[in-house]
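pipeline/complex-builder :: batch 7 item 3
reading input block
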Amino acid sequence: MKWPNHGGQPNVIQQLFQMNTDQPVLDFSANLNPLGPPNWLNNALHQAYETISRYPDPSYTNSTAAVAQFEGIHQDNVLVTNGGAEAIFLVAKYFENGKACIVHPTFLEYERACNHYHLNIDEMFYDQDNGFSLPMLELKHRLQETDVLFLCRPNNPTGHVIAETEIKQLLELGLSVGTHIVVDEAFADFLPSNTHSLTRLLETYPNLIILRSLTKMYTIPGLRFGYVMAHQSVISVLKHEQIPWSINSLVDSIIPKLIADRTFVDKTKSLLHGESQFLHRSLTSMDFYLSPTQVNFYLLRDRKRPNETEELFIFLLHHGIVTRHTHNFKGLQGDFLRLAIRSHEENKQLVAVLKKWREDK
Amino acid sequence: MKWPNHGGQPNVIQQLFQMNTDQPVLDFSANLNPLGPPNWLNNALHQAYETISRYPDPSYTNSTAAVAQFEGIHQDNVLVTNGGAEAIFLVAKYFENGKACIVHPTFLEYERACNHYHLNIDEMFYDQDNGFSLPMLELKHRLQETDVLFLCRPNNPTGHVIAETEIKQLLELGLSVGTHIVVDEAFADFLPSNTHSLTRLLETYPNLIILRSLTKMYTIPGLRFGYVMAHQSVISVLKHEQIPWSINSLVDSIIPKLIADRTFVDKTKSLLHGESQFLHRSLTSMDFYLSPTQVNFYLLRDRKRPNETEELFIFLLHHGIVTRHTHNFKGLQGDFLRLAIRSHEENKQLVAVLKKWREDK
């Protein structure tokens, strides 16, 4: 079966299972904000229309300044990118021909970017039986032979958050052995207020490289905007290697307003907090496993029928719910499904279908 | 003096010369359509708004099919890209660590992309004294040691068009010695109807790679859309290496309508034909040199004061006209200015200012 590489393609899934693509489905397969984009965005884009007929400012001054101010860092520590994906590829370019370590299961593009730039990849695995914790001993042991360690925090597809103390230990050790640590914070906007982004560690650790994306929180995967935060010596190299005009003018012009909309972020977090509790309560009571997520998606597995995940995927699909398979997440091998937390109405439908699945056998 | 790398940045030029950036100027420095984007485009983007909250289709089926149909080739021979710039970088990746040949003066990004992917670059030069003709003898001689030859047709910054017979000779020779020829046709949309794109040669020559861009004709440099046309074995490798979701959803969704608007293209060509004749007549009669352009821009030099190009640049700037310096075009060394053909009103203003320059001394 040729499973698609990424979520967010409900029609491709429908075609794969010979279903009618006109049939409406609920898409739980993309890790996006259930609220959709902020209401004002369509008008803001309309007003930014005239920017499309000018070349994008090669330094993206508008969005770079907004990001730097929001993050409380200097503009020389920021590089804006065409989505988080371009950020990952540029970072891989920085370590071209070097040695990378990737801890799985995690986002697929670290590996693709490392292959693109001929990095040698060392694969390690989160400890599934212990809440997907980092294999700290082994990691520390191998850090010396590694140029760059890729971590995702909160991690995709598990939603779990590596403890800050562990990241600090790795950064300290990395400093002494010459290893950079890339922390992809694509989902950090969704973190509850008692868990923090690592931005403020940048000052202390010149070997820390943070990747961000505005795609998920603001539901703008089609607009493409991400950024890298790092020591200015790293940023200046990445900037030198970036493809010119890679960021479109529309997104460059609306970023300041987007970042400033904290009401939208708070509203999102509040919704997610409630829905996360609702789902955890409803699903664990039916004996489903949920990964220890702190954000807007989670891994699901039926504890009673742990080896029937594909059947569950198909059952959900036939009941109008598209989830993300995990066949191409190393270490998961399809044993789990990844689901986004959606609106209360949609989550209730999910719970109802899972109840039906449970009762069917 | 820190000259900007590209045109289309009038404010940067104003700052460079300590001028007030609020002062309105006419921008002759960007090679765009003087008509601006088609009138219907703003509404079409507004209607495509909902696409921003979905991940772009990873295969960009919508725009790829439109391009293939328009060009009369198979979809397997097309790869759509985030502007022409991404196309250039992907092609350089294909020849990573190989040997490239670039004929100057030409677009700067071939060299940057080749450096990014560690190609060894052999530099050659158009024969300035003979209408920027190709150094065919030397080129044929060196083709055997070259993996990829980069040509731009119509060429930027001269606007001249390499004869199709010469390209065919190089393709034939390339076939026998294993050399690919990249022809960047970013400005081919502006060609008069008796001069042709090379698309129909793709069937005969598997070593031909054509790059296109919709940026220039449709005045959408801020939206980002280009494409590669080549043998399917080349396209499949480029596709494999392309950064995911690099093309934004808005542009993917409007491309079919954009490509279909031939009335707009015809109107543009008709305007350019008239303006090109007007400028040629007016400027050569005042003893200015114009490069043998067939498209929407040209090189300018004062035949009477050939060594005062920088003074001319500043004179024009102080009279509200921003042109493109040529300091970073190898082989030109700032001796010429590049100007876009603008509307009749703007071209008349240019002629008037140049008349003043002529009379001042």
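note: The mean pLDDT of chain B is 95.
queue -> next item
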